[in-house]
Design goal:
Blueprint lengths: L1 H17 L19 H11 L4 H86 L1 H8 L3 H5 L2 H26 L1 H8 L9 H13 L3 H19 L4 H16 L14 E7 L5 H14 L4 E5 L7 H12 L2 E3 L6 H15 L3 E5 L8 H17 L6 E7 L5 H12 L4 E5 L9 H7 L9 E5 L7 E3 L2 H8 L4
Parallel strand pairs: 1-4, 1-5, 2-3, 2-4, 5-6, 6-7
Antiparallel strand pairs: 7-8
Helix pairs in contact: 1-3, 6-17, 8-9, 9-10, 9-16, 10-17, 11-12, 13-14
Length: 476
């Protein structure tokens, strides 16, 4: 469109430049009138001739000027058009972007509102549930106390509860037998290995004799066991080594049977238990394990920190008391007999079932400490007539035949009612129980209440002669 106007403009300019100049009509010169000079006429004539050089250059310059003006106008118009178009485009883009942003914002806000609504509802519901849970938690102890009654337990029939209890007992029994077998492995490997591929002859009996003596069974126990075994083999005409092994298990179980005795937990209230032993035998640790075992049988327990001689002994017993949630009676030093006296009186006042009195470790050769042990025994009897009801000696299974000397010395100072044999898992001298049962070295066969085969809380269990004999001679 602009090129059309440019051509029209160019044609009009050319027409104007080609059209001759119009001069006014002049009269005939008269002699009396002045006439134009020749120069003036020549100038006029030169001006009226369009085809001559100066006029042509002027017209060319004018045409170029017009074309430049036209091009400038076109460029200006194009620039204006582009600017206008750019402005329109920018305005349209901004409007479109604003529209998109506004639309997206509105959509996003709507989506957020829609998503937030269920979340808010869920939060409100969770808050209400949490408040309800808090309310239940605050009322929990009261509800639990109200529900501690025998009726729910009695509602289950004995027929339905018995299988579950039997299954739990069998599982616990298998677990304990496995730990017992593993604990006695060092002692049993010297005995059970003799029956693998062996012939039943005199050589087998000689090897058994050596193995029993090496296990600290003692001469008396070894001779008694082998004599019974020989008689059994001849009577039943046993020719298989496996049969001889089973016969030895039965004979050993019968030999250890006098040491098996159940602990009389409910014989007195409170039942006062005094625990003694040499240094490092495991008295304090055994007390902590027994406290847990007694609580499992629904018996309340109180501990007396009577070991005022060893450093940190009181703190160790207090730690066991905290683990088992048991009260510990302790003094900052002082007389251990006074601690035992206060503990017995506190147990009677609080209606406690069991009181265990810890004492300092001492050797039988330390006469002044043995006299102190006798004093504690007397003072406890004054606090409660007939107490202590049980006097237990903790024996380290690693000591072997030396345990017989300890039993004899402590039994002479304070009559022992039972033994706790610990650390049988770390020794190959588990045959010491056979020596105690045989009364070796003039030792009274004191009952063995518990044996320990590990450091775990449940590695201290009641002694059962048959289980011990089976674990001792079990196959690898």
């Amino acid at each position: 469109m602009f090129s059309f106007f440019r051509r029209r403009r160019k044609e009009e300019k050319q027409d104007e430049s080609i059209q001759p100049l119009k001069r006014p009509a002049q009269a005939e010169p008269t002699p009396s009138q002045p006439t134009e000079s020749d120069s003036d006429v020549g100038a006029i004539e030169q001006t009226d001739k369009p085809s001559q050089g100066p006029s042509t250059h002027t017209e060319t310059a004018k045409t170029a000027t017009d074309e430049g003006i036209t091009d400038a106008a076109e460029h200006a118009a194009a620039g204006v058009t582009e600017s206008a178009a750019a402005g329109v485009t920018e305005d349209a883009t901004e409007s479109a972007v604003e529209g998109v942003v506004e639309g997206a914002t509105e959509s996003a806000v709507e989506d957020v509102i829609e998503d937030a609504a269920p979340a808010a509802a869920t939060t409100d519901a969770g808050t209400k549930n949490a408040l309800a849970d808090d309310a239940v938690t605050q009322e929990g102890p009261i509800i639990e106390q109200a529900e501690v009654a025998p009726e729910p337990a009695m509602a289950d029939s004995p027929q339905s509860a018995a299988p579950a209890q039997d299954k739990a007992k069998k599982k616990e029994k298998r677990s304990w037998f496995g730990r017992l077998r593993a604990g006695l492995a060092r002692t049993g490997q010297n005995l059970s290995g003799l029956f693998v591929g062996a012939k039943v002859d005199e050589e087998l009996f000689e090897e058994l004799e050596t193995a029993l003596i090496m296990a600290d069974a003692g001469i008396e126990a070894t001779e008694s066991l082998l004599a019974d075994l020989r008689a059994r083999v001849r009577k039943e005409r046993l020719t298989d080594a496996a049969q001889v092994k089973e016969a030895l298990i039965e004979i050993l179980s019968a030999h250890l049977a006098p040491l098996e005795k159940a602990f009389p937990l409910r014989a007195h209230q409170p039942l006062v238990v005094m625990i003694a032993g040499v240094n490092g035998a495991g008295k304090t640790t055994s007390i902590g394990k027994l406290a847990q075992a007694f609580q499992a049988q629904q018996a309340s327990v109180l501990l007396a920190a009577g070991d005022t001689f060893r450093a940190a002994a009181r703190e160790q017993l207090i730690e066991w008391g905290q683990r088992n949630n048991v009260t510990v009676i302790a003094h900052d030093g002082g007389d251990p007999a006074a601690v035992a006296f206060d503990a017995v009186n506190a147990a009677r006042a609080r209606d406690i079932d069991v009181v265990m009195v810890d004492t300092a470790g001492r050797l039988p050769t330390q006469l002044h400490l043995m006299d102190e042990l006798k004093k504690i025994h007397r003072v406890v009897g004054r606090a409660y007539e007939g107490a202590p009801h049980e006097v237990l000696l903790v024996v380290d299974g690693n000591t072997g035949q030396n345990a017989l000397a300890q039993i004899r010395a402590f039994d002479a100072a304070i009559p022992l009612s039972g033994l706790i044999v610990t650390k049988l898992d770390g020794t190959a001298k588990g045959g010491i129980l056979a020596a105690v049962a045989a009364g070796s070295q003039q030792v009274r066969p004191v009952p063995v209440y518990w044996i320990g085969v590990g450091e775990g809380l449940y590695d201290l269990q009641p002694f059962v002669a048959q289980e011990f004999a089976q674990a001792l001679l079990a196959d690898d």
